[in-house]
């Protein structure tokens, strides 16, 4: 007669998961601040220590200023693109046989952008 196989407890499953996360983060070929933080956090939990942020090398957080700078760069690039499209739409390439086709493409792009903003 086959005896039932005992299932691991939830605590054992969680401990195994944390151990696996810690080992995987440490075994990564490229150690980043975030991976070191994950490994440190998992190790502390395995040792039963409560989370204290100052004990762990915190991962880099993206600040609002960084996001605003990236947003500004995107707006600037978008403005340059709109200017170039407007020049092409106006026939500023100097190649008469291509100006009509390019102007139509550029005008369609500008129209689509205006519709998207509406």
TrEMBL record:
Name of the protein described by the UniProt record: Uncharacterized protein
Give the species this sequence originates from: Achromobacter veterisilvae
Q: Which domain of life is it from?
A: Bacteria
């Amino acid at each position: 007669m086959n005896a039932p196989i005992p299932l691991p407890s939830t605590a054992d499953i969680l401990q195994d998961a944390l151990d696996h996360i810690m080992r995987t983060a440490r075994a990564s070929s490229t150690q980043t601040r975030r991976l070191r933080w994950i490994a440190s956090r998992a190790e502390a939990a395995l040792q039963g220590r409560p989370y204290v942020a100052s004990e762990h090398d915190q991962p880099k957080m993206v600040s609002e200023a960084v996001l605003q700078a990236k947003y500004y760069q995107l707006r600037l690039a978008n403005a340059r693109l709109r200017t170039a499209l407007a020049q092409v739409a106006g026939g500023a390439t100097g190649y008469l046989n291509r100006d009509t086709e390019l102007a139509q493409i550029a005008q369609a792009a500008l129209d689509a952008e205006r519709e998207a903003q509406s």
